[in-house]
Amino acid sequence: MPSTQSTLEPSNTFGDFLRQLRRRAGFTQGELAALVGFSVAQISRLEKNERLPDLAVVAQEFVPALALDDEPRLAQHLLELAALARGERLPAQMQIERRIIAVVQEQVVEHDSALPALPTPLVGRQRDLDMIAKRLMEAPGRLLTLIGPPGVGKTQLALAAAAHLSYLFERGARFISLAAIMDPHNVASAIAAGLGLTEADGKLPQVRLVEHLRRQKMLLVLDNFEQVTAAAPLVAQLLSECAQLRILVTSQEPLRLRSEQRQRVEPLGVAAAVELFFQRAQAIDPTFEISNEQAAIAADICLRLDCLPLAIELLAAQTESFTLLQLVNRLANQRLDLLEDGPRDLPAHQRTLRNAIHRSYALLDAPEQRLFCSLGVFAGGCTVEALVAVMHPLQDGQNIEWTEENVIAALRQLVRKSLVQMDASVQPARYHLLTTLHEYAAEQLALRPEDAHLRHAHARHFWQWVQAPQAPPASDQPKQGLDELALDYDNLRAALQWTLHYDSTLALKLAVALTDFWALRGHDFEARQWLRQVLAAHPAQTSDRAAALVAAASFARRQADYAEAEKDMVESLVIYEKEGDRPGLAEALRQDGWLQYDLHRKEPTIARFSQSLALQREIGNQQGIADLLLCLVHVMVRQPEHAAEVRAYLSESLQIFQALDDREGVIKVLQQQGEQKLMAGEYAAAQADFQAALRLWRELGARLNVAWSLAQVGEAAWLQNDLGTASQCYAEAHKLFSELGNKDGIAILRHHMAEVARKENDLGRAERLYVESLGMAHELQNQHMVARCLAGLGAWRRPNWIAQTRAIT
């Protein structure tokens, strides 16, 4: 009796095979348990290989229950695996109880499967294999199509699944590659040849196939069906006329048959991708070392390759010539070119990733190719609305108008063909390309005449889009607008990068439009870098340049780069005066007022705000009026002589903000009311206002405003001797200011933290924090904070603080 152990997959244990046979028979665990007199728990433990099978029970109970009386090959294999699980040898003749006891003496026929062996072990696909087995063997439909993008490993997975399931079929499994077949009419001949059938009596190939397969229990694997999908009716005919045939197909798009089940093959998880990378690298170089540092770099590499098995296998071969860090650097610019010269035993279309992608691209019709290339202009994906806005002006050579309806129809085709991914977890749904596919699409777009037009349309769309309100002012969704902008931030960056070189005026407009988003989300460092680049690209003295200068000055001021801020503000004011741009001048004066405030120049601060307010009243800009009223409140709130003005300004600004339904403005009024109460000694009431403002700023995701609100809540708590709350608020605010590079905030918070330490009698920590704050305040020319730090240091006698402060000042 020949042994089958040498041909088994490692996962093909007694439990695995029992589960496959149970599914083949159409039983649940409970139904099988009832037939053999076991409990459901016992069946479950057997299938998990947690319970040793009893050979006699398997022969007498399980074989007839699973309808294996007339399947001696399967019965024999089940018994062999049962013996193997127990570490025993199967008796030469094993009694199998049927309705009458007989001895299985029939010679077990060797498998006549003709499956190519997997050249390398399959990694990270056990769940996929289990799902394939379950759906192919249990579901009513006898067709399962594995769908996925090029390079995702559909062929390898299908081969592994076929090897895993072949013992369930009397005639095993057969693998037919259709990679070289381009004409759907030749598919029947290719399958017939793969099955070893010869022409007979002039019969058509499909007739010969049906005759041959009609009574065969077989698993037929059809690989690379995407280029011959018009042959899908042949598959339907085979399933209809061959009742015991099951078919496993790999394709980039579904066959769209009624009997079809579909299973999408996704890229590997990161851990499995790294395992595959190291496995292939060590196959080439057995001295290749695996360390935590190497694993982290390999994970970065795999993510850059979308965790596609083909790409990983191709790149792992490069470890022979490059270190992992060198591969990371080269991937940044040469991703597809690095994945060349693959193994010679792979099909030609899989020897390079570029070939695999090009093969899929070549199967698209002209409109689909145009849409696929157009997606290369987007970074991080897009919505249908954005795609239509960019493509609609295009004139297609085939007179296709890129309306929303046509774009959606073409997108659906690309999604079906696994070249585009759809993310329905956000609304509206977003469409994107895998990184490697995106690089190929961008390459192809660069060769097309519409490249520049599309990129300009992309930049203009996102400039117009970023200026429009992204969400209705609903109190339950205050972050929605910012979150939608964040989803397309990669697109905004790409638009900025392109306009820097090809449309500097649009680059200025786009950077200015992004100012509020940058400020609210705390992207101060990145904002300054972009603004410096767009200003360098557009030296002409225009209002657009002046607006960008004001934005640059604002971010420089936030990071206490006052010299840079003053230089930009002076130039912007000159341009606005020359251009006679009153709205622009009003905004510049407001921003310059804040700069004067940070430089502790009280009179110039009030003068700038007052000038700006007068201009806004002339223009009739209600939003601007309300903002300026709050600016003046902020400066005057701690000065008793201005108490009446403060009350009037607060009342007017609140009325305007409420009329405009401006949530941010209302929050700012709330904060200023808290400051007013703080000055009146109403500390608990002030803290309540500050906490309400803090909660609303958190909902909005405005990190800088959150930091300042935390400082206010902490100060109100400190004044009430609630040092725990004060310390907690100050620590979080200090962390935010540090992340944002806001030196003024850092200096103030270190003083506040010193105040807490002093009250806790931790004099050493208090002294250190006072001295640090004093040094920063002196550097920032913040005389107010210098005085407060000196006062704090003078609150107790320490022998060395005088020498330290003299050295600083």
Helix and strand arrangement:
Layout lengths: L13 H12 L3 H8 L3 H8 L7 H11 L6 H15 L8 E2 L5 E2 L22 H13 L4 E5 L6 H12 L7 E5 L9 H8 L10 H9 L4 E6 L8 H10 L3 E7 L8 E5 L5 H15 L7 H13 L4 H8 L7 H15 L14 H10 L3 H9 L9 H8 L12 H13 L4 E3 L6 E3 L2 H12 L4 H17 L12 H8 L1 H14 L1 H10 L1 H7 L2 H14 L5 H16 L3 H18 L2 H17 L3 H18 L2 H15 L6 H18 L2 H17 L3 H18 L2 H17 L3 H18 L2 H17 L3 H17 L3 H11 L7 H8 L1
Parallel strand pairs: 3-6, 3-7, 4-5, 5-6
Antiparallel strand pairs: 1-2, 8-9
Structure overview:
With 809 residues, the protein is mostly helical. The chain has 39 helices and nine strands. The strands form three sheets. The chain has a five-stranded parallel β-sheet, sandwiched between helices. Strands 1-2 form a two-stranded antiparallel sheet. A hairpin with a 5-residue loop joins strand 1 (95-96) and strand 2 (102-103). The model is unreliable at 1-11, 95-112, 470-478 and 801-809 (pLDDT under 50).
